[in-house]
Amino acid sequence: DIPVSNCAIRSNAWDSTLIAKVIKKDTISPGVFGKLQLKEEYRGTDQTPLFGGILQAEAFVASKLPITYNPQKKAKIVKVVNELCKAVTEQVGTFIEAVAKIDDEEPDIEPYVQQP
User: Fold this and answer.
1) Share of the chain above pLDDT 70, in %
2) What domain of life does the native source organism fall in (predicted)?
3) How many domains does the chain fold into?
4) What percent of the chain shows pLDDT beyond 90?
5) Residues 6+ apart with CB under 8 A from 19
6) pLDDT, tens only, 38-71
7) Angle in degrees, CA 12, 14, 18, rounded to 5
8) How many Å separate Cα 110 from the centre of its chain?
9) Does residue 85 belong to any structural domain of this protein?
10) How distant is the alpha carbon of residue 24 from its chain centre?
11) Contact, 16 vs 97, CB < 8 A?
12) Which entry of 26, 28, 44, 98 is 20 to 30 Å from 88 by CA?
């Protein structure tokens, strides 16, 4: 006997429309994500978030540099790190949208059906 769950099935097809909705709900400001929070059991308590905006970039940089580091240089590093995070976030979003678009546009081909 194999135990079968009787709980409700929770699934969605992740198409470009659903991805766009989630991105919109998760956007704090342009290029800054994190409005939707992970469930408590999945949150890392000792992690320094990096992709949440300038304050998170400041905290991240501060955690990696000595306290005595030049404040002007530190501010410049924070700005560069924040810009990098924005660019990475944008590129990941573009990548996800491109993959979803391919999936939406191209029909699936059955691997065992001989094509003409």
Assistant:
1) 70
2) Eukaryota
3) 1
4) 16
5) 96, 97, 100
6) 766 656 544 555 677 888 889 889 989 998 999 9
7) 90
8) 31
9) yes
10) 12
11) yes
12) 44
Q: Is residue 110 part of a domain?
A: no
Nearest to 15 by CA among 90, 89, 96: 96
- pTM here is 0.49
- Which single residue is written with the structure tokens 């940089």? 61
Establish if 98 belongs to a structural domain: yes
Q: At residue 72, does pLDDT exceed 80?
A: yes
Structure tokens at 39: 């469930």
Q: Which domain holds residue 91?
A: 16-36+47-105
What is the b/e burial string over 74-104, where b = at least 16 CB atoms within 10 angstroms of the residue's CB?
beebbeebbeebbeebeeebeebeeebeeee
Query: In this structure, which amino acid lies at residue 21?
Result: K
